[in-house]
Design brief:
about 325 residues, alpha/beta, 6-stranded antiparallel beta sheet, about 20% strand, elongated
Amino acid sequence: IEAGLTTDIYFVKTRDVLEADGRLEVPVVAEIFARKGGVFAGLPEVVRLLDGHGVEVHSLGEGDSFEAKEVLMRISGPYAAFGMYETVILGMLASSTGWATAARECVKAACGKPVLSFGARHVHPAVAPVMERAAVVAGGCAGASCILGAKLAGIEPKGTIPHAAILISGDTVRLAKIYDEVLEEGEPRLILVDTFKDEAEESLRVAEALGEKLSGVRLDTPSERGGVSPDLVREVRYRLDIAGFGHVSIVASGGLNPEAISRLAEAGVDSFGVGSYIAHATPRDMTMDIKVVDGKPVAKRGRFPGITENPRLARVL
């Protein structure tokens, strides 16, 4: 990235042409905006990239909501210091902002109940940690399953055992007992209960086996069997309660979106694992405009020359 190998070739050509013209070091002011509102994210990466290049950066804060075409970031300095990085700066902000916006939608729908980002399996591993970090730090997710993503967000990764472990073991209760034995003290005992038997039946079997040690059960019922529905959640909750396991929480996952999260939260789900909705979020299209050249206001047609004031921007570099 720093070598310019991930930028568009035309910015390298721009550098060469301006250098030949003797104008590469001209001081400029560039502004970045998005065509659609969202939740701003990706700022630390941009700051890390530009640090030491002799530029001044003003920006919204990580996790700030913004409106369409609001100025999100302003970069001032010699064009040579940052011009070649336009592609990667916009890409960093576009992707992270898209993920953060989707995560915030899920968090809002959960009405205060925790949402964990489980999206790493849906994207290339090179970008999965960045996605998970954006979902936590800017989007408001309470945790992430991707190890490096959680570390980048300053937290420990969260997650329980997958269906693969239960399928190989052959019985949910058997594996739950072994899981309890090998898991460190303080780690929540969360068990999947949709692998072999009816979810309510399996929840009771696991609860009876682990007792007070059981933190919660996770419902990940596939779409082939109707998915995780409000009625299913209500039944599981009811059966656990009347059997004396009111302390056992219910976690839902599997193709969730804000609408489903809202319904399930009302039905009694205590926390959510969201993957594809966050991972597949549409990036927010970002545009960088040169607005001042050598102290003089400029702009291409359709834009207003000079700095666009935004009192919400703060200096970050």
